[in-house]
Backbone:
Protein backbone atom coordinates (compact mmCIF):
# COMPACT_ATOMS: atom_id res chain seq x y z
CA UNK A 1 0.00 0.00 0.00
CA UNK A 2 1.56 3.29 -1.04
CA UNK A 3 1.69 6.30 1.26
CA UNK A 4 -1.31 8.03 -0.27
CA UNK A 5 -3.43 4.89 -0.09
CA UNK A 6 -2.38 4.25 3.48
CA UNK A 7 -3.37 7.80 4.45
CA UNK A 8 -6.70 7.38 2.67
CA UNK A 9 -7.30 4.16 4.57
CA UNK A 10 -6.69 5.95 7.87
CA UNK A 11 -9.07 8.76 6.91
CA UNK A 12 -11.75 6.23 5.94
CA UNK A 13 -11.29 4.38 9.23
CA UNK A 14 -11.52 7.60 11.22
CA UNK A 15 -14.61 8.70 9.32
CA UNK A 16 -16.31 5.41 10.12
CA UNK A 17 -15.33 5.82 13.78
CA UNK A 18 -16.74 9.36 13.83
CA UNK A 19 -20.06 8.11 12.46
CA UNK A 20 -20.25 5.38 15.12
CA UNK A 21 -19.43 7.90 17.87
CA UNK A 22 -22.16 10.28 16.75
CA UNK A 23 -24.73 7.50 16.43
CA UNK A 24 -24.00 5.95 19.83
CA UNK A 25 -24.02 9.36 21.51
CA UNK A 26 -27.45 10.16 20.04
CA UNK A 27 -28.84 6.79 21.15
CA UNK A 28 -27.50 7.24 24.69
CA UNK A 29 -28.75 10.83 24.83
CA UNK A 30 -32.26 9.64 24.01
CA UNK A 31 -32.25 6.63 26.36
CA UNK A 32 -30.56 8.37 29.29
CA UNK A 33 -32.18 11.78 28.93
CA UNK A 34 -34.16 11.40 32.17
CA UNK A 35 -31.11 10.73 34.36
CA UNK A 36 -31.16 12.50 37.72
CA UNK A 37 -27.55 12.06 38.81
CA UNK A 38 -26.35 15.00 40.93
CA UNK A 39 -29.76 16.66 40.95
CA UNK A 40 -29.26 17.47 44.62
CA UNK A 41 -26.48 19.90 43.81
CA UNK A 42 -28.45 22.01 41.31
CA UNK A 43 -29.40 24.62 43.98
CA UNK A 44 -25.70 25.41 44.49
CA UNK A 45 -25.27 26.21 40.80
CA UNK A 46 -28.40 28.34 40.89
CA UNK A 47 -26.78 30.28 43.73
CA UNK A 48 -23.76 30.91 41.50
CA UNK A 49 -26.04 31.94 38.65
CA UNK A 50 -27.47 34.62 40.97
CA UNK A 51 -24.06 35.71 42.26
CA UNK A 52 -22.28 36.03 38.90
CA UNK A 53 -21.90 39.53 37.45
CA UNK A 54 -23.41 41.20 40.53
CA UNK A 55 -21.31 39.71 43.37
CA UNK A 56 -23.85 41.29 45.71
CA UNK A 57 -22.93 40.65 49.35
CA UNK A 58 -26.53 39.89 50.25
CA UNK A 59 -26.78 37.24 47.54
CA UNK A 60 -23.44 35.72 48.55
CA UNK A 61 -24.46 35.59 52.23
CA UNK A 62 -27.73 33.92 51.26
CA UNK A 63 -25.96 31.20 49.27
CA UNK A 64 -25.84 27.74 50.83
CA UNK A 65 -22.06 27.52 50.34
CA UNK A 66 -20.59 30.38 48.25
CA UNK A 67 -17.32 28.53 47.57
CA UNK A 68 -18.72 25.06 46.88
CA UNK A 69 -18.76 23.48 44.35
CA UNK A 70 -16.53 25.00 41.67
CA UNK A 71 -18.48 27.69 39.85
CA UNK A 72 -18.10 26.49 36.25
CA UNK A 73 -21.57 25.00 35.97
CA UNK A 74 -22.98 28.11 37.59
CA UNK A 75 -21.93 29.97 34.44
CA UNK A 76 -23.86 27.40 32.41
CA UNK A 77 -26.96 27.89 34.56
CA UNK A 78 -26.51 31.63 34.23
CA UNK A 79 -26.89 31.27 30.46
CA UNK A 80 -29.67 28.68 30.46
CA UNK A 81 -31.15 25.76 32.38
CA UNK A 82 -32.74 24.30 29.27
CA UNK A 83 -31.97 20.60 29.60
CA UNK A 84 -32.15 19.82 25.89
CA UNK A 85 -29.76 22.61 24.92
CA UNK A 86 -27.26 21.80 27.68
CA UNK A 87 -27.18 18.05 27.05
CA UNK A 88 -26.79 18.45 23.28
CA UNK A 89 -23.95 20.92 23.89
CA UNK A 90 -22.27 18.57 26.36
CA UNK A 91 -22.58 15.55 24.07
CA UNK A 92 -21.20 17.55 21.15
CA UNK A 93 -18.22 18.57 23.28
CA UNK A 94 -17.67 14.94 24.27
CA UNK A 95 -17.68 13.84 20.63
CA UNK A 96 -15.28 16.59 19.56
CA UNK A 97 -12.88 15.84 22.41
CA UNK A 98 -12.86 12.09 21.74
CA UNK A 99 -12.40 12.49 17.99
CA UNK A 100 -9.58 14.99 18.52
CA UNK A 101 -7.82 12.61 20.93
CA UNK A 102 -8.04 9.81 18.35
CA UNK A 103 -6.70 12.13 15.64
CA UNK A 104 -3.68 12.93 17.84
CA UNK A 105 -3.06 9.24 18.52
CA UNK A 106 -3.05 8.60 14.78
CA UNK A 107 -1.08 11.67 13.79
CA UNK A 108 1.85 10.85 16.03
CA UNK A 109 1.55 7.04 15.82
CA UNK A 110 1.14 6.73 19.59
CA UNK A 111 -0.58 3.34 19.40
CA UNK A 112 0.22 0.22 17.42
CA UNK A 113 -2.35 -0.72 14.72
CA UNK A 114 -3.89 -3.38 16.96
CA UNK A 115 -4.04 -1.02 19.94
CA UNK A 116 -5.65 1.66 17.82
CA UNK A 117 -8.42 -0.70 16.70
CA UNK A 118 -9.00 -1.90 20.26
CA UNK A 119 -9.27 1.64 21.57
CA UNK A 120 -11.77 2.64 18.89
CA UNK A 121 -14.02 -0.28 19.78
CA UNK A 122 -13.74 0.38 23.52
CA UNK A 123 -14.33 4.11 23.02
CA UNK A 124 -17.53 3.45 21.10
CA UNK A 125 -18.86 1.27 23.94
CA UNK A 126 -17.56 3.62 26.68
CA UNK A 127 -21.10 4.13 27.94
CA UNK A 128 -20.21 6.10 31.11
CA UNK A 129 -18.29 8.64 29.03
CA UNK A 130 -21.33 9.40 26.89
CA UNK A 131 -24.01 8.85 29.54
CA UNK A 132 -22.69 11.48 31.97
CA UNK A 133 -23.27 14.14 29.30
CA UNK A 134 -27.01 13.52 29.63
CA UNK A 135 -26.88 14.85 33.19
CA UNK A 136 -27.01 18.45 34.34
CA UNK A 137 -23.66 18.13 36.07
CA UNK A 138 -20.13 19.49 35.56
CA UNK A 139 -18.66 16.04 34.93
CA UNK A 140 -19.44 15.91 31.21
CA UNK A 141 -17.93 19.29 30.34
CA UNK A 142 -14.98 18.73 32.69
CA UNK A 143 -14.23 15.36 31.05
CA UNK A 144 -14.25 16.88 27.57
CA UNK A 145 -12.03 19.77 28.61
CA UNK A 146 -9.55 17.42 30.29
CA UNK A 147 -9.35 15.18 27.22
CA UNK A 148 -8.70 18.24 25.06
CA UNK A 149 -6.01 19.32 27.52
CA UNK A 150 -4.31 15.91 27.33
CA UNK A 151 -4.59 15.87 23.53
CA UNK A 152 -2.94 19.27 23.13
CA UNK A 153 -0.32 18.27 25.69
CA UNK A 154 0.58 15.16 23.65
CA UNK A 155 0.73 17.29 20.51
CA UNK A 156 2.95 19.86 22.18
CA UNK A 157 5.26 17.22 23.62
CA UNK A 158 5.78 15.50 20.27
CA UNK A 159 6.11 18.67 18.22
CA UNK A 160 7.87 20.56 21.01
CA UNK A 161 5.60 23.56 20.46
CA UNK A 162 4.82 26.08 23.20
CA UNK A 163 1.53 27.04 21.51
CA UNK A 164 0.04 23.59 22.04
CA UNK A 165 1.35 23.42 25.60
CA UNK A 166 -0.39 26.72 26.33
CA UNK A 167 -3.62 25.44 24.76
CA UNK A 168 -3.35 22.41 27.01
CA UNK A 169 -2.95 24.71 30.01
CA UNK A 170 -6.01 26.75 29.02
CA UNK A 171 -8.19 23.64 28.74
CA UNK A 172 -6.81 22.28 32.03
CA UNK A 173 -7.54 25.57 33.78
CA UNK A 174 -11.08 25.50 32.41
CA UNK A 175 -11.40 21.91 33.66
CA UNK A 176 -10.52 23.05 37.17
CA UNK A 177 -13.21 25.72 36.99
CA UNK A 178 -15.72 22.88 36.72
CA UNK A 179 -14.09 20.19 38.88
CA UNK A 180 -11.14 20.67 41.25
CA UNK A 181 -10.29 16.94 41.55
CA UNK A 182 -7.30 17.34 39.23
CA UNK A 183 -5.80 20.33 41.07
CA UNK A 184 -2.63 18.47 42.07
CA UNK A 185 -2.23 16.53 38.84
CA UNK A 186 0.55 18.98 37.95
CA UNK A 187 2.88 16.89 40.15
CA UNK A 188 2.65 13.58 38.22
CA UNK A 189 2.50 15.59 34.99
CA UNK A 190 5.86 17.18 35.79
CA UNK A 191 7.33 13.69 36.27
CA UNK A 192 5.97 12.53 32.90
CA UNK A 193 7.34 15.64 31.17
CA UNK A 194 10.72 15.10 32.85
CA UNK A 195 10.80 11.54 31.57
CA UNK A 196 9.77 12.53 28.04
CA UNK A 197 12.39 15.30 27.78
CA UNK A 198 15.05 13.50 29.85
CA UNK A 199 17.66 13.90 27.12
CA UNK A 200 16.89 17.58 26.58
CA UNK A 201 17.54 18.43 30.21
CA UNK A 202 15.84 20.33 33.00
CA UNK A 203 15.79 23.63 31.12
CA UNK A 204 13.62 22.13 28.38
CA UNK A 205 11.22 20.61 30.90
CA UNK A 206 10.84 23.84 32.86
CA UNK A 207 10.59 25.81 29.61
CA UNK A 208 7.36 23.95 28.83
CA UNK A 209 6.04 23.15 32.31
CA UNK A 210 6.37 26.67 33.75
CA UNK A 211 4.26 28.32 30.98
CA UNK A 212 1.71 25.51 31.33
CA UNK A 213 1.38 26.16 35.07
CA UNK A 214 1.30 29.93 34.50
CA UNK A 215 -1.57 29.73 32.01
CA UNK A 216 -3.50 27.35 34.30
CA UNK A 217 -3.19 29.81 37.18
CA UNK A 218 -4.16 32.67 34.85
CA UNK A 219 -7.36 30.85 33.84
CA UNK A 220 -8.06 30.15 37.51
CA UNK A 221 -7.44 33.77 38.52
CA UNK A 222 -11.13 34.85 38.35
CA UNK A 223 -12.07 32.07 40.77
CA UNK A 224 -9.17 32.96 43.06
CA UNK A 225 -10.25 36.61 43.09
CA UNK A 226 -13.85 35.60 43.78
CA UNK A 227 -12.84 33.37 46.73
CA UNK A 228 -10.66 36.20 48.06
CA UNK A 229 -13.72 38.43 47.94
CA UNK A 230 -15.85 35.86 49.78
CA UNK A 231 -13.40 34.29 52.28
CA UNK A 232 -10.51 36.72 52.43
CA UNK A 233 -8.21 34.05 50.98
CA UNK A 234 -7.11 33.16 47.45
CA UNK A 235 -8.25 29.60 46.69
CA UNK A 236 -7.75 27.39 43.65
CA UNK A 237 -10.18 24.67 44.72
CA UNK A 238 -13.59 24.45 46.34
CA UNK A 239 -14.13 24.23 50.09
CA UNK A 240 -15.39 20.67 50.39
CA UNK A 241 -12.15 18.67 50.54
CA UNK A 242 -12.27 18.54 54.35
CA UNK A 243 -15.86 17.29 54.18
CA UNK A 244 -14.87 14.59 51.67
CA UNK A 245 -11.83 13.42 53.63
CA UNK A 246 -13.82 13.32 56.88
CA UNK A 247 -16.81 11.28 55.70
CA UNK A 248 -14.40 9.16 53.64
CA UNK A 249 -13.27 7.67 56.95
CA UNK A 250 -16.81 6.37 57.31
CA UNK A 251 -16.43 4.09 54.29
CA UNK A 252 -14.88 1.45 56.54
CA UNK A 253 -17.80 -0.50 58.06
CA UNK A 254 -17.92 -0.37 61.88
CA UNK A 255 -14.96 2.03 62.04
CA UNK A 256 -13.68 3.08 65.46
CA UNK A 257 -14.46 6.76 64.76
CA UNK A 258 -18.17 6.05 64.42
CA UNK A 259 -18.25 8.13 61.23
CA UNK A 260 -20.71 7.42 58.41
CA UNK A 261 -20.60 8.32 54.72
CA UNK A 262 -23.62 10.62 55.05
CA UNK A 263 -23.15 14.25 53.99
CA UNK A 264 -24.86 15.07 57.26
CA UNK A 265 -22.75 12.66 59.34
CA UNK A 266 -23.67 13.14 63.04
CA UNK A 267 -20.03 12.95 64.23
CA UNK A 268 -18.96 15.63 61.75
CA UNK A 269 -21.87 17.93 62.56
CA UNK A 270 -21.31 17.57 66.33
CA UNK A 271 -17.61 18.38 65.97
CA UNK A 272 -18.36 21.47 63.89
CA UNK A 273 -20.98 22.69 66.36
CA UNK A 274 -18.67 22.04 69.30
CA UNK A 275 -15.72 23.82 67.65
CA UNK A 276 -17.61 26.88 66.37
CA UNK A 277 -20.19 27.09 69.11
CA UNK A 278 -23.05 26.96 66.61
CA UNK A 279 -24.39 24.83 63.80
CA UNK A 280 -22.26 25.36 60.72
CA UNK A 281 -22.22 24.06 57.17
CA UNK A 282 -19.37 21.64 56.46
CA UNK A 283 -18.81 23.32 53.09
CA UNK A 284 -17.67 26.74 54.28
CA UNK A 285 -14.05 27.89 54.28
CA UNK A 286 -13.64 27.78 58.06
CA UNK A 287 -15.30 24.36 58.27
CA UNK A 288 -13.07 23.05 55.50
CA UNK A 289 -9.93 23.99 57.41
CA UNK A 290 -11.22 22.44 60.62
CA UNK A 291 -12.34 19.17 58.99
CA UNK A 292 -9.02 18.68 57.20
CA UNK A 293 -7.22 19.18 60.51
CA UNK A 294 -9.62 16.80 62.27
CA UNK A 295 -9.11 14.19 59.55
CA UNK A 296 -5.32 14.33 59.95
CA UNK A 297 -5.58 14.05 63.74
CA UNK A 298 -7.81 10.98 63.47
CA UNK A 299 -5.43 9.31 61.02
CA UNK A 300 -2.42 10.02 63.26
CA UNK A 301 -4.24 8.74 66.33
CA UNK A 302 -5.28 5.49 64.66
CA UNK A 303 -3.17 4.85 61.52
CA UNK A 304 -4.04 1.14 61.48
CA UNK A 305 -7.73 1.94 61.15
CA UNK A 306 -6.95 4.31 58.29
CA UNK A 307 -4.92 1.60 56.55
CA UNK A 308 -7.91 -0.74 56.93
CA UNK A 309 -10.14 1.95 55.47
CA UNK A 310 -7.79 2.46 52.50
CA UNK A 311 -7.54 -1.28 51.81
CA UNK A 312 -11.33 -1.54 51.95
CA UNK A 313 -11.68 1.43 49.57
CA UNK A 314 -9.15 -0.15 47.20
CA UNK A 315 -11.26 -3.30 47.06
CA UNK A 316 -14.37 -1.24 46.38
CA UNK A 317 -12.53 0.73 43.70
CA UNK A 318 -11.63 -2.49 41.90
CA UNK A 319 -15.20 -3.75 41.64
CA UNK A 320 -17.59 -0.82 41.81
CA UNK A 321 -17.45 0.21 38.15
CA UNK A 322 -18.62 3.71 37.32
CA UNK A 323 -21.73 5.76 36.77
CA UNK A 324 -23.37 3.85 33.93
CA UNK A 325 -26.41 5.91 33.10
CA UNK A 326 -29.97 5.41 34.33
CA UNK A 327 -31.52 3.80 31.27
CA UNK A 328 -34.37 2.30 33.28
CA UNK A 329 -35.76 5.85 33.57
CA UNK A 330 -36.45 5.89 29.84
CA UNK A 331 -40.17 6.34 29.34
CA UNK A 332 -40.84 7.78 32.80
CA UNK A 333 -42.59 11.12 33.04
CA UNK A 334 -40.65 14.35 33.29
CA UNK A 335 -41.80 14.84 36.89
CA UNK A 336 -38.95 14.68 39.41
CA UNK A 337 -41.00 12.73 41.93
CA UNK A 338 -41.80 10.02 39.34
CA UNK A 339 -38.16 9.65 38.38
CA UNK A 340 -37.00 9.57 41.98
CA UNK A 341 -39.55 6.86 42.78
CA UNK A 342 -38.31 4.86 39.75
CA UNK A 343 -34.74 5.12 41.07
CA UNK A 344 -35.80 3.75 44.48
CA UNK A 345 -37.76 0.94 42.82
CA UNK A 346 -34.74 0.01 40.67
CA UNK A 347 -32.38 -0.12 43.66
CA UNK A 348 -34.86 -2.38 45.47
CA UNK A 349 -35.18 -4.61 42.38
CA UNK A 350 -31.40 -4.76 41.90
CA UNK A 351 -30.95 -5.69 45.57
CA UNK A 352 -33.40 -8.55 45.15
CA UNK A 353 -31.54 -9.74 42.05
CA UNK A 354 -28.19 -9.65 43.87
CA UNK A 355 -29.58 -11.77 46.72
CA UNK A 356 -31.46 -14.09 44.36
CA UNK A 357 -30.32 -14.11 40.70
CA UNK A 358 -33.49 -16.00 39.68
CA UNK A 359 -35.54 -13.02 40.84
CA UNK A 360 -34.75 -11.42 37.50
CA UNK A 361 -37.08 -13.96 35.87
CA UNK A 362 -39.76 -13.55 38.55
CA UNK A 363 -40.01 -9.80 37.97
CA UNK A 364 -38.69 -9.26 34.44
CA UNK A 365 -38.26 -5.64 33.38
CA UNK A 366 -36.43 -4.87 30.13
CA UNK A 367 -35.18 -1.44 31.18
CA UNK A 368 -33.84 -2.69 34.48
CA UNK A 369 -32.31 -5.77 32.86
CA UNK A 370 -30.48 -3.62 30.30
CA UNK A 371 -29.25 -1.35 33.11
CA UNK A 372 -27.82 -4.27 35.07
CA UNK A 373 -26.10 -5.66 31.96
CA UNK A 374 -24.52 -2.27 31.27
CA UNK A 375 -23.33 -1.97 34.87
CA UNK A 376 -21.77 -5.45 34.82
CA UNK A 377 -19.98 -4.63 31.56
CA UNK A 378 -18.62 -1.36 32.99
CA UNK A 379 -17.46 -3.09 36.18
CA UNK A 380 -15.54 -5.67 34.14
CA UNK A 381 -13.94 -3.05 31.89
CA UNK A 382 -12.67 -0.96 34.78
CA UNK A 383 -11.62 -4.03 36.79
CA UNK A 384 -9.45 -5.34 33.95
CA UNK A 385 -8.04 -1.87 33.35
CA UNK A 386 -6.82 -1.65 36.95
CA UNK A 387 -5.49 -5.22 36.81
CA UNK A 388 -3.53 -4.39 33.65
CA UNK A 389 -2.32 -0.98 34.84
CA UNK A 390 1.02 -2.42 36.12
CA UNK A 391 1.53 -3.88 32.63
CA UNK A 392 1.08 -0.45 31.06
CA UNK A 393 3.51 1.09 33.54
CA UNK A 394 6.10 -1.65 33.00
CA UNK A 395 6.09 -1.45 29.22
CA UNK A 396 5.83 2.34 29.36
CA UNK A 397 9.10 2.47 31.27
CA UNK A 398 10.72 -0.31 29.26
CA UNK A 399 9.96 1.17 25.84
CA UNK A 400 9.93 4.82 26.97
CA UNK A 401 6.29 5.14 25.91
CA UNK A 402 5.12 8.61 26.97
CA UNK A 403 1.45 7.89 26.21
CA UNK A 404 1.50 4.79 28.40
CA UNK A 405 3.12 6.70 31.27
CA UNK A 406 0.75 9.67 30.95
CA UNK A 407 -2.31 7.42 30.98
CA UNK A 408 -0.86 5.53 33.96
CA UNK A 409 -0.28 8.81 35.81
CA UNK A 410 -3.89 9.87 35.21
CA UNK A 411 -5.32 6.56 36.45
CA UNK A 412 -2.98 6.33 39.45
CA UNK A 413 -3.86 9.88 40.47
CA UNK A 414 -7.60 9.26 40.30
CA UNK A 415 -7.30 5.89 42.05
CA UNK A 416 -5.34 7.52 44.88
CA UNK A 417 -8.24 9.95 45.44
CA UNK A 418 -10.72 7.07 45.54
CA UNK A 419 -8.59 5.04 47.95
CA UNK A 420 -7.19 7.63 50.34
CA UNK A 421 -10.02 10.19 50.31
CA UNK A 422 -13.47 9.02 49.23
CA UNK A 423 -14.59 6.24 46.92
CA UNK A 424 -17.62 7.07 44.82
CA UNK A 425 -18.71 5.36 41.59
CA UNK A 426 -19.45 8.69 39.98
CA UNK A 427 -15.83 9.82 40.40
CA UNK A 428 -14.69 7.03 38.07
CA UNK A 429 -16.45 8.68 35.15
CA UNK A 430 -13.74 11.39 35.28
CA UNK A 431 -11.19 9.07 33.72
CA UNK A 432 -13.27 6.28 32.19
CA UNK A 433 -12.08 6.98 28.64
CA UNK A 434 -8.49 6.68 29.90
CA UNK A 435 -9.34 3.28 31.38
CA UNK A 436 -10.33 2.26 27.84
CA UNK A 437 -7.09 3.70 26.46
CA UNK A 438 -5.16 1.82 29.14
CA UNK A 439 -6.80 -1.45 28.10
CA UNK A 440 -5.83 -0.79 24.49
CA UNK A 441 -2.21 0.00 25.39
CA UNK A 442 -1.83 -3.05 27.64
CA UNK A 443 -3.47 -5.36 25.09
CA UNK A 444 -1.21 -4.01 22.37
CA UNK A 445 1.94 -4.76 24.35
CA UNK A 446 0.77 -8.16 25.55
CA UNK A 447 -0.60 -9.45 22.24
CA UNK A 448 1.71 -7.82 19.68
CA UNK A 449 5.42 -8.02 19.07
CA UNK A 450 7.63 -5.05 20.10
CA UNK A 451 8.18 -4.31 16.40
CA UNK A 452 4.42 -4.00 15.83
CA UNK A 453 4.25 -1.44 18.62
CA UNK A 454 6.92 0.62 16.90
CA UNK A 455 4.87 0.82 13.68
CA UNK A 456 2.49 3.64 12.97
CA UNK A 457 -1.25 3.23 13.36
Residues:
Amino acid sequence: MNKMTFKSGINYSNNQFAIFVVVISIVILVLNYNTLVMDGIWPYYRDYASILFSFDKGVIDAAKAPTFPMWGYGWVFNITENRLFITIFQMTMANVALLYLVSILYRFSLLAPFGGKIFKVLAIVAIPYFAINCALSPYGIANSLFILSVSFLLKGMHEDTLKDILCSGIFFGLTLNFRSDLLYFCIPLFLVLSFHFRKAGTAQVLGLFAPWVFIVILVMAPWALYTKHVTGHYLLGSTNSGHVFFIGLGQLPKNTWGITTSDGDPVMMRELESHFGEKKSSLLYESDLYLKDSFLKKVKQDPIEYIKKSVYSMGKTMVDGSYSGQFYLFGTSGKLEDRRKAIIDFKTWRGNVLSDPFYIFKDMNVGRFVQVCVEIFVVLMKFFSLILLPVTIWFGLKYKDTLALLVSAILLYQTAILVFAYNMRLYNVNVYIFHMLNLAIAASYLLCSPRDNENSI
In short: The CA atoms of residues 138 and 148 lie 16 Å apart. Confidence is low (pLDDT under 50) at residues 1-6.
